[in-house]
Amino acid sequence: MNRMLKIVSLLPVLALAACGFHLRGSAALPKGMERVHITVGGGGDFQRKLARALLASNVTLEDSGGPGIAELHVPAQNFTVQTLTVNGVAEVTEYAVHYHVVFNATDSNGKSIMPSQSIDMQREYSYDASQPVGTQAQVEEIQGSLIDDAVQAVLFRLQAVARHGEAAAAQAVGTMPANASTVQEPPQYSPSIDDN
User: Fold this and answer.
1) Is 78 within the bounds of a domain?
2) Contact assessment for residue 73 and residue 39, using Cβ atoms and an 8 Å cutoff
3) Where are the alpha helices (DSSP H) in the chain?
């Protein structure tokens, strides 16, 4: 009976593995990225969370670059805050937090597998002047969430290179929560002229 229970309990796990399911944070990275040296401008939470995600993807992190070691370089990652709305007495009531990340990657032979790319995300939040402490905690939570999403976006793009080549990487931003957005240029309006 115990043996049958063990077999039945393993069936869902085997089914998930067979369909290619991966836990969040685990990614099938391009060949040549088994050993990686990461450099992140500004360090901080982004570097720590990126390192954790790479370890979850069975990557060996190296303290320095060298022959046989891939490079994942993040020269810029920063937050900016933008005022969105102001009430009738000139008090700000809504902000947007923007997060910008630039990165590139080379494989263990020094060949570029991911040219310089950027990820831009934002979240909006309401500001209550009567609770500034709560607002600061809200901003920190939003920043942490944006960092998590940016790390996942980096992994999705690297995974796209592994599966589909470099051309797919620029288009692979992965799934993002409904309240996240990538900042893009608005489409330009060009009226059609009818010659008739």
Assistant:
1) yes
2) yes
3) 2-18, 44-56, 132-164, 166-169
Q: What tokens appear for 121 in the block?
A: 């995300």
- The answer as to whether 65 is a domain residue is yes
Q: How many CB atoms lie within 10 A of CB 176?
A: 15
Q: What distance in Å separates the CA atoms of residue 108 and residue 123, rounded to the nearest whole number? A: 36
CA max distance for the chain: 83
Query: How far is the C-alpha of 3 from the C-alpha of 99, rounded, in Å?
Result: 51
Nearest partner of 71 among 114, 28, 120, judged by Cα: 114
Inter-residue contact 26 to 57 (CB < 8 Å): yes
pTM for this structure? 0.70
Terminal-to-terminal C-alpha distance of the chain: 83
Ranges in the chain, pLDDT < 70: 1-26, 132-134, 166-196
8 A C-beta contact, residue 90 and residue 152: no
Q: Where are the alpha helices (DSSP H) in 19-127?
A: 44-56
Q: Which two tokens stand for residue 120?
A: 């831009």
Among all chains, which residue has been given the structure tokens 């500034």?
132
User: How far is it, in rounded angstroms, from Cα 105 to Cα 113?
Assistant: 6
Q: How many domains does the chain have?
A: 1
Answer yes or no: is 34 within a domain. yes
